[in-house]
Each structure stands twice: as structure tokens, then as C-alpha cells.
Amino acid sequence: MKISIGAKPLAFPAPAWVIGTYDMFGKPNAATIAWGGISCSNPPCISISLREATQSYKNIMEKEAFTVNIPSERFVRETDYFGMASGKDENKLEVAGLSPVKSDLVYAPYIEEFPLVLECKLIHSFEIGLHTQFIGEIVDIKADESVLDEKGAPDIEKVGPVVFAPENRNYHRIGDILGKAFSIGRELKKK
């Protein structure tokens, strides 16, 4: 039997993504978000949600661009820090000892040490309530060669992305393969 636990922002897993932006003076900023996901296949788009009070919100509104940096497990400490500190008060990338790289395609930095980066141009923003949702068209994805499989696609096990459990505020790693998508359910599909 299921019991009601109330309405809350809870879905498993939530990402632990680091958003890269530039402020009005060209200073790079990094902020961890958990409210986000793929929102369209064609054009390829991603959605992220931020509070208006954040520096990243202001930066995206001004520059109409951002990067989604997907940290590997070895950067969980830095990822957590990026979600606690404010870009208004300090240079978070400098404090974390990570390297911002200027994208050639959008006016936003990405983090050199993170294995996977999505470069996005803002195409929509929607005020929802406490958060504003930003829809970014993915104009390119940059990946470390070391995380690619034999076909040149990112391998989730090699990337080792950090995921977030919002209810208990813990970070987790990706687990074992359960089966091949669009395959294991075939026996249940009616012909």
C-alpha cells in the first residue's frame, strides 16, 4: 500500500550539474543545480531552473547562454561547494582550483576538468514560481576522449556522473546496467 508523503520537488535521480556563466564583467561563475533535464530532441534542448536571487540567473538573463558541466565522481566536493557559495562574493572556480575555458560557440565558460560539457544558447525562459526555467538549445557537446566508447559516444560508466537525491540531500553514483533500452520490454509488447 502506498501512503501520501505530500507534494514536494522529488524525482529520482536528480542531476548534479554545474552551470557555467559569465557575469557582466566577464568573470566566470559556476553554480550547481539539481532541477534540470532534457526537454526536446529536435532541436536538442535542455532545461534548468534557477532562483532569481542567484548570480547565475542574472548572468543567463544578460548573456543568453550557459554551459551544463557534468562532473565526474572525483569532483563531488567541488560540485557541492558550487551549490553553497555565491558568485557574488567569490570566484568559485578559482577557490576550487578548476579551469574555466571560454566556449567558442556561446558566451559562457565550461570547466576543463569535467568530462562532459553541453554548450547552450538560451531560447526560452519561464517564470514558474520560486524558480525560473531556462530552456537552452544544445549547440555542441564537448567530451574528454577518455570517456568515449568505441563508437565515439559518451559512456556513462566512464563519465561517472554525480546524481543527487533531493529528499535526503545525498550524492550518489550510477549503478549497474539493468538491461538494454527498447529491447528488454519487447516480450511484453503486443504485436
From TrEMBL:
InterPro entries: Flavin_Rdtase-like_dom (IPR002563), Flavoredoxin (IPR052174), Split_barrel_FMN-bd (IPR012349). Its cofactor is FMN. One of its GO terms (molecular function) is FMN binding. Keywords: Flavoprotein. Residues 10-164 form the Flavin reductase like domain. It holds the Pfam family Flavin_Reduct. It comes from the Archaea. Belongs to the flavoredoxin family. This is Flavoredoxin. It comes from Methanolobus halotolerans. The lineage of its organism: Archaea, Methanobacteriati, Methanobacteriota, Stenosarchaea group, Methanomicrobia.
